[in-house]
Each structure stands twice: as C-alpha cells, then as structure tokens.
Amino acid sequence: MDKVGHGETDSRSSTPAPSTPEEVRVLLSEAERLLAAARALAADDAAARAGVQRALSALRARSARADLAAIPVARLKDVTDGRLRLGTLEQAGYATVLDILDATPYALQLLPGIGARTAAQVHAAAGQIARAAEETVAVRIDVDRRDAETTALLIALHRLVTAGPDLPRAGRAARAAQEELGALLPAAQPARSRLRMLLAGRDGRRRAREAAAGVAGVLAAAAASGTPLLLNQASVDLLRPQASDIEAWADFELRPPEYYNLLAEIAALEPDRVAAEGFLPDVISARVRAQELDDVHRRVSLRGYQAFGARFALAQRRVILGDEMGLGKTVQAIAAIAHLWAGGARHFLVACPASVLINWMREIESRSTLKAYRLHGPDRGAALAEWVRGGGVAVTTIDSLHRLPTTGEVTLSMLVVDEAHYVKNPATRRSQAVAEWCARTDRVLFMTGTPMENRVEEFRNLVGHLRPDMVPGVRGSDAAAGAQAFRRAVAPVYLRRNQEDVLTELPDLVMVDEWEEFSPADLAAYRAAVAEGNFMAMRRAAYAVPRTSAKLQRVLELVEEAAGNGLKVVVFSYFRDVVSAVHQALDGRAYGPISGGLSVTARQRIVDAFGAARGHAVLLSQIQAGGLGLNLQAASVVVICEPQVKPTMESQAAGRAHRMGQTRKVQVHRLLTADSVDQRMLDILRAKARIFDTYARHSDLAESTPDAIDISEQTLARQIVAEEQRRLALAPGTPPPEDAGAGQPPEGPGRVTRTCR
C-alpha cells in the first residue's frame, strides 16, 4: 500500500505522541484539514476524468455511427439468434442498423406486421450492436479534422495534462491519506477531551492514544514529503478555467505524447497484453509485472508498454531493449534509473553515440529529477569529479568510454548503452570497453531499434556482454521460425515491441523535431555566413563539412534504423547541394535525386522505381520539386533536412507520403540545429501561426489561402540575419575567429533533443 510521503524518509517512529487534550485537538484539526484536501483532490480528479469519459463516449458514438451505417439490417438476426423477421423492415426502407437505431420503437411498430414486442426487440438488438461498435471503434485525434467531438475531448484532457506529472503522485498520496486518516481519526476522537477519555474505558483510552500517535506519525510523514502542498497545488491545477478550443489544440500539437498517454489510461486503449509484453513467456511476464516501479523522481507518465519495458530492465537486470523506433526507449531507461535512485542507488552511466549525447542530457533533466553530467568535451574532468561526489547520471560517448577512469569511490548502479548495435563487433575498442564496464556492473541495459532476429550473429555478440551463459542457446533456427518464436527463445534477455502492436490509437502521421549541435567546422561556416549576412548559407551551414555534420549523421542513423525495420525513406531538402551530400554519404544507395531540372516523366519514373523496390529503399528530393504533385505512399519515414520558410511546403511534402494508400504510420523527422537560424525561424513562424490560429483558422479565407500562414522570405531573412549578428557579436563582413573551426571532435557531432509534436 502507498503511504503518505511514499519515497521520502518516514518520520513517524520519531514523532512524539500528543500528551494533552489541547495538543490532540490541534493535531486532529490539522489531520482533518489534510483529509479534506485529500478528499477534495480525489473528487476533482474524478470529475475531470468523468469529463474525459463523457467526451470520449460522444466521440465514439459519432465514429460508431459511420460503422453502423455500413452494417445491413440482416445482421440483427445474429444478435437475436435468427428469431426476427426483417423482410418488412427492409421493404419499408430500413436498410442498415443505423436506420433502425435512428427510428423509435413506436415508429417501427406502425409498420404492417410489426407489433410492439417485435419493434422493441428490433430496436434493442440495434442498440446492442451500437454499444459493441462504440466499445471497439478506434480513437484517433486528427489535427486536420477539428470536429466538435474531438475538440471537446482535447479540452477535457487538457485539464488533466496541464496538471502535470505530479498529479498521479498527488492522487496516490490522497488515497493513502484517506485510507490512513479515515481509519485513525474516528478512533482518536475520545482523546480530544478528558471527559470523553474518562467515559471511553481502559481499552478505549488505549485505542485513542494509539490512534492519536498514529495521526501524528501520518502528519509528520506528510509534512516531510510535502504532501499538503502537493494536494493543494494539484487541486488548483484541476480547477483552472476550461481551455478554449484553440488553446487545447495548440497544446496538443506541442505535446501529443502526454495526451495520448492519458487517453490510453482513461479509455483503456492499451494494446493486446501479449503484444505489449513482447510475446514473452508467461513466467517471465508475471515476474516483470510484479516488479515495482517507483515514480517519485520521474517527471513523465508512461504508457503501459513503456512501464513494462522499464520493469523488464529492472526485473531481468541485464537485458536488451529492442523496441522499434518511435516507441520511447530513452524514457523507459530513465524510468528504470529513477526507480533505482528512489531506492538509494546513486551512480548511473549512459554510453551512446556522440550524435545522441545532448539528447540524453536534455531528456534526463526534463524527464526526471536527476542531474545529468556530460563526461565528454573540455569540461569532462570537472563533470566527472562532481558526478563521483554527488551522484546522478553520467553521459559519455561509446567511443570515449575506454578513456573514462574507474574509481573505487563509485559503485555503478546501472550501465545503459544506447544504439548498442554499435558494439556488435567484439574486436573493436569500443566493444571491448563496453565489455569491461559490463563485467563490473550488476545492471546493464542495451538499447537498439534494429530487429535482432534479423541479425542472429550480432545478437549473440551482444548477449555475450550481458549473459555469456545464454550464448550457446541462441540459435539461428529460432529466428528462422519467425520473430515471435525468436523473442520467446531469448526472452530472459530481449524485449522488442513494434509500433503496429502497441500504438493502436495513434494518428497515422507523427511529427518529430530532431535538434542537433553544430560541429566546430560547421559552426565556423555558420559564423562566416552570419558575418556575410548570407541567409541561404546560414540555412545549410550544418552540412558545410559533411564528414562532421551532426544533421547528416542523424540522416544516416534514421536511414539505417529504417533499413533494419524494412521501411522506405524519403529525404527532402530545399538545397540541391544538401541533397547531393546525403547522396554521397549513402554511397549512391538511393533513388533520385529529384530536382527542379527533371521532367515530370523522369520524376515519376524515379518514384515508380522507388515504390516497386522490395523492402527498404531511400528516395532523395528537393522539397520544392518532390513536395508537390507526386504520390510517395510507399514511404513511411520522411526526413526534412532543414526547416522551410513556408511551413505549408513542409506539410505538403509530408502529405506526399501520408495519403490514401499508405498502410503504415508515417514518421516525419525535421532536423534542426539549436542556437541557429533554424531556432530563430521556428520562433518567428510559431508566433505568426498563433496569430493565424487565433483570428483566421476557421475562416473561409484561411481555408482557401493556405499560404496565409507563410511569411515573406525577404522579411524573415533580414530579421534573422540581424538577430544572429547581434547574438554572435558579428558585424556585417566580420570574418570568423581563426580558431572557430580548429580541431575536430574525436567522436563527431552531437544531437540535442527529439520532441514529438
């Protein structure tokens, strides 16, 4: 049972019991206030969730009507074991179940041969089918279809989402307070006065004193954990004024995962349990489900399959988390780390490719209360000393792991290796360094989105780091029997879920912002472009030196992961030289590029060949050439190499893949560089988009002129160039410092963060 103050030091054992009736009255009054606050929060939370349920029911009912309109009236026989004669209904024009549902029993019994009893049975049968349809209808939130029912659902969810990640913890504290104080307060009441104690008898007095002492302990623990403030703040958040439709939609587009997580919880939209648990054997699944998962130090809610993944890492101790791209492996790792921190563990280490190092830093500090330390770069020595002294999560690159000094002062509680397929070759230095750290760490979590059943030998090598005893049992014949058979065979060490198995209610289009860092060489090119006032050169400076380009490295990673999952990819850029750089980096293994100089026939020939290719393939295109007029529904991953001056150009490009005929969810990855022209463009365009949403989103003018959201390129360029020149203290024509690009980072560039929207 959760206790008030769960996760904090329990102060009850040292709390003195009140000794006088006056002290008891003060104590019990304080306890009654806490109990009232707990009950108020529970009521506010229940009311907010009931609002979501009502909105959800309305949305499901509307969605189900379309299904009912396609069900012939003859299906009513299935519900009534064929007892109904439906010929009269069909002759009267009642062709579908929806027709029956929209009629009244009285209207039905007016038909020749239909009595009151038959009319009631027919209408009840239609209602039974309608309820079944509502229970099974898919729940989708489509930003391009802002109907009244979906808007009402988002407004209802907004109240709970904006209450923040502390709301679940406040709810548990409220339930614990009600349970504990609800039992203790009645028993403690005689201690309020000497007369009542006298009349209570010996046993009554003893029970009253014990109950009062218990109340004192509960209040002390609640005070130590900040429960009163937690409860009051949560209630205030739940009672804020209802959001407007524009505010709710804007917030949803900013952080859709929070809405979907909450919706899945309230609407019981979680996927099939067996699929969500990676088809593990029952004995392992049961052990994982029994594993506790403390969320005191976590700042994000988890989907059911994500919580299971974190529990799997904790229960099995040394594992590979192989979820398909887009399922939140990083969040699952952070959840496991936060649980261990709550239990007293203090030192954790993440080793990852340089391209995701900054992403890990930001994710740790935004998704948990833990501090992250960057053990890479010029300040790594100071960061290492601080990490050793205070604990937290150290983040370094796989390639520099061998240089990280070990110290007897630190007992490592968990090692996380991201993109673990990079250490598949045991002969490499990076793999040997990982092996050494694994050997002295009790808990190890490898993460990779590449399906291991397609690479059995690589999998054997990874298992060798974690569970050498299992290596002889990893057989190619298990993989040959299919993905599920393979996963069951290696279940003690491997968990993988696919998008189609666990994201059953997500929209068909998921937008992802990928933030990167400049490499030193690219930063030098960027500063030079800013000094020259060259807006176009600023926009493509992140690709100036392909060998060290963080954005280009991320393109290659996305392509590689898509290849591992057999997905087709389209890469868009405004600039021909950027498309060419991607083409060269892929060693020519791509269709295209499509550019403005190609005829329509030549473009279509390339698209047809791309679509006809079996399995994975990559198509390259300038966005202004391939973003219009071509159907690219063979692709399920879209990469936009830089933000566009006209947001409509991005949406049109994404729409080439996300259209009728697409059978998989489409992921659109937009690559951005922090503290650069990219960030300035988004700030300006988002401000304009908010104004547009407020005044014109639903007007006929807005619908007929999508370019209304766009902004003059010349105006945007002038503003951004001036801002960047001021920020970097570069007057027009100022050359960059001589050492701006000196030296190359030993492990290449780094990526900042990925934000789903």
TrEMBL record:
GO MF term list: helicase activity; hydrolase activity
Region feature (Disordered): 1-22, 729-757
Domain of life: Bacteria
Compositional bias (Basic and acidic residues): 1-11
Enzyme class: hydrolase
Record EC number: 3.6.4.-
Pfam families assigned to the protein according to its UniProt record, in alphabetical order: Helicase_C, SNF2-rel_dom
Residues in Helicase C-terminal domain copies: 551-709
Keywords per UniProt: ATP-binding, Helicase, Hydrolase, Nucleotide-binding
Gene3D superfamilies named among the record's database cross-references: P-loop containing nucleotide triphosphate hydrolases, Tandem AAA-ATPase domain
Residue span(s) of domain Helicase ATP-binding: 310-469
PANTHER family linked to this entry: SNF2/RAD54 HELICASE FAMILY (PTHR10799)
Protein name (Swiss-Prot/TrEMBL): DEAD/DEAH box helicase
